[in-house]
Specification:
alpha/beta, Rossmann fold, six-stranded mixed beta sheet, 33% helix
């Protein structure tokens, strides 16, 4: 089943064409890596898929329904976007992990939080810490598990292992693979050639706003 359809997408800023007539169909459960040089349009494309910016021309469809017809809040619950540099809304780690539950007006499931912390090699006592005291790698992993507390249907990952060492990169990759095997559709922007081919069934290679597909 087609979960995302991108049709005739154009995006221009400051006289530069960043996305130039992008047409892609994505089936549910696909694992897609997005590659290309800096400035080629990768992150812009992901932000558009995450309904964070709008195209100048073209349409995006989620489950055959135009993005414009979706309630933005509902759409962003189903399509989660993770920035390379995570954003947090509160000072303490625990408050940030609690936030997805409060949005849904559900009681906090601490067992779920601890399960995910364990999967990314973080200890329970990190919940007591202030966000400003954490490393970039800790923030990236916490941002990931916050997005996985309630599984989205599409997960958009923008260089989310850039601040991780080798061992924690492997741990994070293992979790993403596990999520993919549960049926979540994955888009993963990466500059790592090995990472781009490790789990994906397709590669989208961006070059000057155009995209070429490679099936693996």
């Amino acid at each position: 089943m087609t979960i995302l359809k991108i049709s005739g997408l154009f995006y221009t800023r400051d006289g530069n064409t960043i996305l130039n007539d992008i047409n892609i169909e994505i089936d549910s459960g696909e694992f897609i890596t997005v590659t290309g040089s800096s400035g080629s349009g990768k992150s812009t494309f992901l932000k558009m898929c995450g309904d964070l910016i709008s195209p100048d021309m073209g349409n995006l469809f989620y489950k055959n329904k135009n993005y414009l017809e979706w309630n933005p809040y509902e759409l962003r619950r189903k399509i989660a976007y993770l920035f390379q540099t995570p954003s947090f809304f509160f000072d303490s780690v625990y408050e940030n992990m609690e936030y997805p539950f409060s949005l849904r007006k559900e009681p906090v499931n601490k067992e779920r939080i601890l399960e995910l912390l364990n999967k990314v090699n973080l200890k329970e006592d990190i919940l007591k810490q202030n966000i400003i005291n954490l490393s970039g790698g800790e923030k990236q992993r916490l941002s990931l598990i916050r997005s996985l507390i309630f599984l989205p249907e599409v997960l958009l990952l923008d260089e989310i292992t850039s601040a991780l060492d080798y061992d924690n990169t492997l741990i994070t990759e293992k979790l993403i693979k596990e999520i993919s095997e549960q049926g979540v559709t994955i888009f993963w922007v990466t500059h790592d050639k090995d990472q781009s081919r490790k789990y994906a069934n397709r590669i989208l290679n961006f070059d000057s706003g155009k995209v070429k597909e490679e099936k693996l």
